[in-house]
Protein backbone atom coordinates (compact mmCIF):
# COMPACT_ATOMS: atom_id res chain seq x y z
CA UNK A 1 0.00 0.00 0.00
CA UNK A 2 1.54 3.28 -1.01
CA UNK A 3 1.31 6.12 1.50
CA UNK A 4 -0.84 4.43 4.18
CA UNK A 5 -2.54 6.56 6.87
CA UNK A 6 -0.78 6.87 10.24
CA UNK A 7 -2.26 7.14 13.71
CA UNK A 8 -0.81 10.65 13.91
CA UNK A 9 -3.37 11.66 11.25
CA UNK A 10 -6.31 11.22 13.63
CA UNK A 11 -8.18 14.17 15.11
CA UNK A 12 -10.85 13.61 17.75
CA UNK A 13 -13.45 16.24 18.49
CA UNK A 14 -17.06 17.27 18.82
CA UNK A 15 -19.36 19.12 16.45
CA UNK A 16 -22.84 20.16 17.58
CA UNK A 17 -22.28 17.97 20.66
CA UNK A 18 -21.73 14.90 18.45
CA UNK A 19 -18.59 12.86 18.96
CA UNK A 20 -16.55 12.48 15.80
CA UNK A 21 -13.12 11.48 14.59
CA UNK A 22 -11.41 12.72 11.45
CA UNK A 23 -8.93 10.46 9.68
CA UNK A 24 -6.54 12.35 7.42
CA UNK A 25 -5.73 10.00 4.55
CA UNK A 26 -2.71 10.68 2.31
CA UNK A 27 -4.89 9.90 -0.73
CA UNK A 28 -8.04 8.08 -1.79
CA UNK A 29 -9.41 6.70 -5.04
CA UNK A 30 -10.94 10.07 -5.94
CA UNK A 31 -8.58 12.48 -4.13
CA UNK A 32 -4.94 11.99 -5.01
CA UNK A 33 -3.59 14.57 -2.55
CA UNK A 34 -5.00 14.04 0.94
CA UNK A 35 -8.57 13.56 2.01
CA UNK A 36 -10.35 13.66 5.35
CA UNK A 37 -12.79 10.93 6.35
CA UNK A 38 -15.24 11.76 9.14
CA UNK A 39 -16.28 8.95 11.48
CA UNK A 40 -19.31 9.80 13.60
CA UNK A 41 -20.54 8.02 16.72
CA UNK A 42 -23.38 5.55 16.16
CA UNK A 43 -25.54 3.72 18.68
CA UNK A 44 -24.63 0.37 17.19
CA UNK A 45 -22.28 -2.58 17.59
CA UNK A 46 -20.61 -1.27 14.42
CA UNK A 47 -19.85 2.14 15.93
CA UNK A 48 -16.70 3.13 14.00
CA UNK A 49 -15.34 5.28 16.85
CA UNK A 50 -15.50 2.44 19.36
CA UNK A 51 -13.91 0.02 16.89
CA UNK A 52 -11.10 2.48 16.05
CA UNK A 53 -10.47 3.16 19.76
CA UNK A 54 -10.31 -0.58 20.45
CA UNK A 55 -7.85 -1.07 17.59
CA UNK A 56 -5.59 1.75 18.80
CA UNK A 57 -5.74 0.49 22.40
CA UNK A 58 -4.98 -3.16 21.63
CA UNK A 59 -2.46 -2.59 18.84
CA UNK A 60 -0.23 -0.15 20.75
CA UNK A 61 1.11 1.46 17.58
CA UNK A 62 4.10 3.73 17.52
CA UNK A 63 3.82 6.91 15.44
CA UNK A 64 5.91 5.55 12.57
CA UNK A 65 3.65 2.54 11.87
CA UNK A 66 0.65 2.77 9.53
CA UNK A 67 -2.75 3.15 11.21
CA UNK A 68 -4.01 -0.31 10.26
CA UNK A 69 -0.98 -2.18 11.56
CA UNK A 70 -1.07 -4.98 14.08
CA UNK A 71 1.45 -7.09 15.97
CA UNK A 72 2.41 -10.63 14.95
CA UNK A 73 5.04 -12.98 16.42
CA UNK A 74 7.29 -11.86 13.54
CA UNK A 75 6.78 -8.18 14.38
CA UNK A 76 4.42 -5.44 13.17
CA UNK A 77 2.42 -6.10 10.02
CA UNK A 78 0.22 -3.82 7.94
CA UNK A 79 -3.35 -4.88 7.21
CA UNK A 80 -3.92 -4.82 3.46
CA UNK A 81 -7.22 -4.83 1.60
CA UNK A 82 -6.42 -8.33 0.30
CA UNK A 83 -5.68 -9.70 3.80
CA UNK A 84 -8.80 -8.03 5.23
CA UNK A 85 -11.11 -9.43 2.55
CA UNK A 86 -9.49 -12.87 2.75
CA UNK A 87 -10.13 -12.97 6.50
CA UNK A 88 -13.72 -11.76 6.15
CA UNK A 89 -14.49 -14.26 3.39
CA UNK A 90 -12.92 -17.13 5.36
CA UNK A 91 -15.17 -16.36 8.33
CA UNK A 92 -18.29 -15.87 6.22
CA UNK A 93 -17.68 -19.00 4.11
CA UNK A 94 -17.81 -21.09 7.31
CA UNK A 95 -21.29 -19.66 7.89
CA UNK A 96 -22.40 -20.35 4.32
CA UNK A 97 -22.33 -16.72 3.16
CA UNK A 98 -21.20 -15.86 -0.38
CA UNK A 99 -17.81 -14.32 -1.13
CA UNK A 100 -17.80 -10.50 -1.27
CA UNK A 101 -15.53 -7.82 -2.66
CA UNK A 102 -14.43 -4.54 -1.12
CA UNK A 103 -17.03 -2.71 -3.20
CA UNK A 104 -19.73 -4.52 -1.22
CA UNK A 105 -18.72 -2.51 1.86
CA UNK A 106 -19.37 0.77 0.05
CA UNK A 107 -22.74 -0.45 -1.21
CA UNK A 108 -23.66 -1.80 2.22
CA UNK A 109 -22.56 1.40 3.94
CA UNK A 110 -24.64 3.49 1.58
CA UNK A 111 -27.69 1.31 2.20
CA UNK A 112 -27.14 1.27 5.98
CA UNK A 113 -27.03 5.08 6.16
CA UNK A 114 -30.13 5.43 3.99
CA UNK A 115 -32.03 2.91 6.15
CA UNK A 116 -31.02 4.99 9.17
CA UNK A 117 -32.83 7.91 7.48
CA UNK A 118 -29.67 9.86 6.72
CA UNK A 119 -30.63 12.22 3.87
CA UNK A 120 -29.27 11.09 0.48
CA UNK A 121 -27.25 14.30 0.00
CA UNK A 122 -25.45 13.65 3.31
CA UNK A 123 -24.82 10.01 2.29
CA UNK A 124 -23.31 11.32 -0.95
CA UNK A 125 -21.03 13.74 0.89
CA UNK A 126 -20.04 11.23 3.58
CA UNK A 127 -19.16 8.66 0.92
CA UNK A 128 -17.13 11.32 -0.91
CA UNK A 129 -19.09 10.68 -4.12
CA UNK A 130 -18.27 13.23 -6.84
CA UNK A 131 -21.34 12.34 -8.90
CA UNK A 132 -24.77 10.82 -8.46
CA UNK A 133 -23.34 7.37 -9.28
CA UNK A 134 -24.04 6.32 -5.69
CA UNK A 135 -27.72 6.21 -6.64
CA UNK A 136 -26.95 3.07 -8.66
CA UNK A 137 -25.98 1.29 -5.44
CA UNK A 138 -29.20 1.77 -3.54
CA UNK A 139 -30.26 -1.63 -2.25
CA UNK A 140 -33.41 -2.64 -0.38
CA UNK A 141 -35.69 -0.35 -2.39
CA UNK A 142 -38.76 -1.97 -0.79
CA UNK A 143 -37.56 -0.54 2.52
CA UNK A 144 -36.06 2.74 1.24
CA UNK A 145 -38.91 3.98 -0.93
CA UNK A 146 -41.47 4.05 1.92
CA UNK A 147 -38.95 5.72 4.25
CA UNK A 148 -38.45 8.62 1.89
CA UNK A 149 -41.87 8.90 0.28
CA UNK A 150 -44.31 8.29 3.15
CA UNK A 151 -43.42 11.61 4.76
CA UNK A 152 -43.22 13.51 1.47
CA UNK A 153 -46.93 14.36 1.44
CA UNK A 154 -47.73 17.30 3.66
CA UNK A 155 -50.82 17.12 5.86
CA UNK A 156 -52.56 19.75 3.70
CA UNK A 157 -51.99 17.66 0.57
CA UNK A 158 -53.28 14.55 2.36
CA UNK A 159 -56.56 16.28 3.21
CA UNK A 160 -56.82 17.67 -0.33
CA UNK A 161 -56.74 14.21 -1.90
CA UNK A 162 -59.30 11.65 -0.88
CA UNK A 163 -57.98 8.12 -1.16
CA UNK A 164 -60.68 5.50 -1.59
CA UNK A 165 -60.35 2.11 0.03
Quick structural overview:
37% of the residues lie in helices and 17% in strands. The protein is built from six helices and five strands. A hairpin with a 2-residue loop joins strand 4 and strand 5.
How is this fold's topology laid out?
Blueprint: E1 10-15, E2 18-25, E3 35-40, H1 48-59, E4 69-72, E5 75-78, H2 81-94, H3 103-115, H4 120-126, H5 141-149, H6 155-160
Antiparallel strand pairs: 1-2, 2-3, 4-5
Summarize the structure in words.
- 37% of the residues lie in helices and 17% in strands.
- The termini are far apart.
- It has 2 domains: 79 residues, no CATH class; 86 residues, no CATH class.
- The protein is of the alpha+beta class and 165 residues long.
- The protein is globular and about 55 Å long.
- It has a 3-stranded antiparallel sheet, with no helix packed on it. The protein has a two-stranded antiparallel ribbon with strand order 4-5.
- The C terminus is likely disordered.
- A hairpin with a 2-residue loop joins β4 and β5.
Q: Which range best describes the helical content: under 10%, 10-25%, 25-40%, 40-55%, 55-70% or over 70%? A: 25-40%
Low-confidence stretches: 156-165
Shape by Cα distribution: globular
Proportion of β residues? 15-25%
Count the helices. How many?
6
| Whole-angstrom Rg | 20 Å
What's the overall average pLDDT, rounded? Answer: 76
Strand/helix succession: EEEHEEHHHHH
Number of strands: 5
Based on secondary structure, the structural category is: alpha+beta
Ends apart, CA distance between termini:
60 Å
Largest β-sheet summary? 3 strands, antiparallel
